[in-house]
Q: What sequence folds into this?
């Protein structure tokens, strides 16, 4: 009886949980991971078309869960953070392709919250911004790659502009916000 029960459980486990692969048109591996009843479950790896690792993390009932790592094409870590029920949560760290930290901030249910800090490729502070429930509240600071303060824009009370610069302090773009939301 125990042997029969074991065989039934083993058969059901093997037939309901399988390895799935996704392939680029070029024939290169795009992703691989476990599926249960056609739903992603367990560890998954995603790849650049070149074959280099792009992302690694786990799914539970088709939604991202736990720690996820995202990589630059050169293999260095790009982002690391956690998911809960398919939504980013907790502290997320971002890195430039040279390995220096690019940013750090927290999310709750996929929405930015608190102070987010961003850095230039040389490690110098670029900007700090305050978020609440996914909405931009305040631009605290903005600097070039040598630490010189730059014009943040006109953003106040959720409305106005935010200026984006390169490491040398050259203006790249001016973004417009209304009611703390980016207007395209």
A:
């Amino acid at each position: 009886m125990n042997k029969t029960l074991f065989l039934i459980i083993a058969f059901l486990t093997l037939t309901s949980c399988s390895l799935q692969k996704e392939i680029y048109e070029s024939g290169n591996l795009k992703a691989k991971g476990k599926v249960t009843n056609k739903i992603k479950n367990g560890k998954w790896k995603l790849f650049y078309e070149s074959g280099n690792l792009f992302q690694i993390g786990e799914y539970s009932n088709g939604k991202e869960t736990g720690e996820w790592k995202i990589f630059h094409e050169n293999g260095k870590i790009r982002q690391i953070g956690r998911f809960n029920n398919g939504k980013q949560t907790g502290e997320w760290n971002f890195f430039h392709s040279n390995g220096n930290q690019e940013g750090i901030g927290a999310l709750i249910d996929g929405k930015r919250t608190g102070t987010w800090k961003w850095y230039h490729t040389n490690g110098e502070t670029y900007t700090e911004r305050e978020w609440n429930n996914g909405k931009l509240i305040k631009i605290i600071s903005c600097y070039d790659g040598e630490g010189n303060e730059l014009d943040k824009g006109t953003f106040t009370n959720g409305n106005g502009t935010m200026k984006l610069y390169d490491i040398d302090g050259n203006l790249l773009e001016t973004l417009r916000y209304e009611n703390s939301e980016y207007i395209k």
